[in-house]
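Below sits my pick:
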Amino acid sequence: MLNKTIRSRITDSWMLTALVIILFLPLIIGLALFLKSIPLFHISSLPCLLFSEDWAPNAGEFGFWPFIYSSLYVTALSFVFSAPLCLLAAIYLTEFASKRLIQIMHPVIDILAGIPSVIYGMWGILVIVPLAGEILAPFFNIKSSGYSVLAGGIVLAVMCIPYMLNMLIESFKTVPYGLKEAAFSLGATHWETIKHVLLRKSRPGILSAFGLGLAKAFGETLAVMMVVGNVIQITGNPFKAAYPLPALIANNYGEMLSIPLYDSALMFAALILLIVVLLINLIFRYFIVSSHAVKI
């Protein structure tokens, strides 16, 4: 009996320790990045760092706004492409598709989720970049090399699909069939039932899926770096090149650290990424909690 009590206490202690580590891990990461970024604050204010467009490390100018803008632009574009597609696909798979199609789709979704990002990047170079530069851009009378915000948005959208689609399907499956039957008994059509029962009841799951997709898109590095062009500029033209924050870190860390304060600048870029991802999760968490108060 004594041995069981000791084993139980040891097990509880290890589980509590693991939980505490997980809870404090984001704080530890953020604190480490902040401490490494402090030297950068000695030469420039925070608003200047965030919103200045001047990027000249040799002259001590570190304006991150072009990189932040590029990250937001590519992420927003990928979300516009992937969110409606995933939502409609999840509705079809859960409400209209045959069991055989569902059995085929689940492995396909898992395979898409497991493909390394470098493979998506190579696919983007071979397919999406020529599509954007040689077909889509000439259609709009625009000259483009194909390495652009549009190419990055399309590649990111494809990368986000398996994660968002899986969560949406599982969320729709949790809706009790009795609610649908009640809607049918009141004379609702299938689409009316989907709109007023399935989507409303699954709202927290939908928001969770969209939040996960946005967070993943904002922090993705390798695939976007390979197709987005990596040119420091601010443009609203999706056929122009851009330079997201993850690409800035991946391209320069370890090569440009001989420049004073460059190490702190890259750490600050990583800190911005971390904070934005945390904000995305907090905002969607707020909407999820709020949506639980909505009753059908």
